[in-house]
Structures are given as structure tokens and as C-alpha cells.
Amino acid sequence: MASQDKSINTDVPEKDVFALHFLQSLSNLKTQNPSNSPDKTNDRVKKIKMAAYVSMARAAGGRRLWSRALLRRAASENNKIVRFPRRKRRVTWLSRRRCNRRAPVEEKAADRLRDLVPGGGEMETSKLMKETAHYIKCLSMQVKVMQCLVDGLSPK
Amino acid sequence: MDPPLVNDSSFSAANPSSYTLSEIWPFPVNDAVRSGLRLAVNPGRNFTRSVLVEHPGNKDVSAAEESTVTDLTAGWGGRKTRDLNSEDDSSKMVSSSSSGNELKESGGDKKRKMCGSESGNGEGSVRPEGETSSGGGSKANEQKNKPEPPKDYIHVRARRGQATDRHSLAERARREKISEKMTALQDIIPGCNKIIGKALVLDEIINYIQSLQRQVEFLSMKLEVVNSSAATGVFPSGDLGTLPIDVHRNIYEQQEANEPRGSHPEWLHMQVDGNFNRST
Q: Which residue of A143, B216, B261, B273 has the fewest C-beta atoms within 10 A of its own C-beta?
């Protein structure tokens, strides 16, 4: 259903898939923790946010690096017992960049971008740009759909 | 002043084409007077021609020295690659004097710097010609006769080879790729087209992403309120068809407004189903 084969400019993130996944996870959350459960509001907000990101990653499909990183992060947060106490140190572009201090200004900005885009630390810079473009598209789509949901579902 | 005169006489005796050298030699003298960059540029060009004309037997020497000099210049050529990033690949294939000239100009700057550091004696005018390839201290005697011309010729070759260096080629290709992707990013982000400069564009991108992420957080807070306060019938099955009509319509309208799709019968079906479900 999602069209990941196209290039970056023509690739349109799928609103429907995202909305479907997001609503499913919302209803799951609602059935799992009803409103009188002892969960705090912050936890529920965090869960909803995580559900939004995960469904966005699912809508984007598994071919994008950022979506895979998001799903991996979500999976590691779901079962925290299995998680390693210290994250395994990968040789990432971020750490490699930070090793040599004489990086130009753009590379420093790209490092900050790597912190923002999920899974960005392992990307080479041009790949990072590509993933960032797709990530921004998906994020704006996500914001629009969530806005729609809030507008439509809020009690009049 | 004395060595130029000696050289001039010797070359005029040796070759008819030595008038180039007679043109050349006043220039280092003027160079010692520090009259300008042009004078530093001209001798190099003349030197290369004179070498090609006069010393065909010298080529093996130049070829022998070429490797060493390329190694020497590759050191500070790697430093130069950042400055040459806007320069296209034309200079690496061209062996004509045009690339030689523009490379000479950058070399001329260095020569002038050396002239500025040295005192303005006669040897100071001779030494900057060969100082890029060797220290010039050991060949002080040979510098009076011929050695500068081959070095300048080698110098051109080395600078040319620096452009075709595989590292700088790969670096240039990488930068082109990055800037291409960056322009694609600029098209996505609203109001980012007018910003000039990669760092500023990246800052704008980062700000945009952060604002979007903050928006998502805010909306999830809102949704949490909605989700906890709403009746149990809002998300009974997590299906799109069970959405309220206005939400449904909002999502679809936005989709149609943003990217008009040709034919999606599946979608129409679901929409009809949703409306039907809602109306019953």
C-alpha cells in the first residue's frame, strides 16, 4: 500500500496507514489502561507520543533508516528488561566526526541534525539529508493528521 | 643583478629562443622591488615555455623529479582542496597553459609572501621561483643556470595531478551529493528557499524539525485528554470506518487537497463504509 519505491520527491507519506495504525494503538491504549488506572498523565502522554511515532514509522515502511531506528528504539523501550545497561558502542558517523575536531561548520550543524533524526548517527551526510527530507514529510503529515483527530474528537 | 646578466648572455649564445629568458630575468629583479603579482605570474609562464623549447633533454630529469615534487606538493595540495571545491573538473584534464596560468597565480601569491619575508637582495629574487619544490639552499649554485624552469614545469604538473587525486575527486563528488540533497530539503521546508549558506539552512531545518516534534508532543497531550475523557465508543475497534464523520472528512479532504490521487477504489469504499457506519 505504501509506495516506497519512488524517489524522495515523489514519495508521499501515507496518511491513511498512519491514521489506521495510530487509531489502533490509541484504542489499545484505552482498553489497556482505562482512565481510572493509576497511570499518571505524563506516562499516558508519553505512550501516546510513542504510539504516534511508531505508527508514523510503520506508515513509512521498513526501508527508511529513520523508521527502522524508531521501531528499534520503541521495541527496546517496550521491554526494558532485555535492554543492555550500556548501549553498545557503534562506530557511527557521529562519533567519527567528533573524533576529528577540525570539522567545518556544516558538519557541526549536520551533527546536530543527526541528534534529531532517529538513527541519524549511523548515516553518512548525504544519506542523512535524504532521510531528513523524508522524515520531515512524515512529521508534517503526522502533525496534520493528529490535528485533525484532535479537532474532530474533542467534545464540542 | 649580476647572475641574471650572466645567464642572459649564456642563453642567448646557446639558443635563438632565449629572448624569453631575457624577458624573464628583469622580472625577478622587479620582483625584488615587489612591483606586483603580475610580475610573479609572468615569469612562470615564460619559464615553462622556455623549458619545453630549450631543454628537451631535460625532460627525463623533470620526469625523475616529478614524483618527488608531486609528493611534496600533495601535502599542501590536500589543504587546498577545500578552497577549490567550487572549481569544476576542467582543470584536471587540461594540460594547456591556461590551467597552468591560473595555478601559477596561486603560486605567485606564495612567492610574493616569500619575497616579503626575505630581504630584497639579489638571491631573494631568484629563490622564490624554486622554493615550493625544494628548500633551495642546496642548489644555490644551480639556481643561477637552469633549475627553476624544470621545477616550475613540474609544479604545474603536480598541481594538475592534485585535482585528479582520487581523494579530492571523491570529496568533490560527496559535496555535490550533499548540496543536491540540501536543495531538495530546502524545497520541502517552507520559507527556506531564501536562506543562503549551508549552515543557516541546516539551522533552519533543525528548527523546523524541533518545532514539528514539539507540535507532536503538544498534540499527543491534547489527544490524551480527548482519549481519557471521551466516551468508550470513540475508538471501539481502532478502525478508520468507525471514526466520526468530521474527522474522517478532514483527513480525506486534506489528502485530496494535498495530493490528488487518480483512482483509489479501495479508499472510496472505506469512506463510504465509514459514512454508512456512522449514519446507522
A: B261
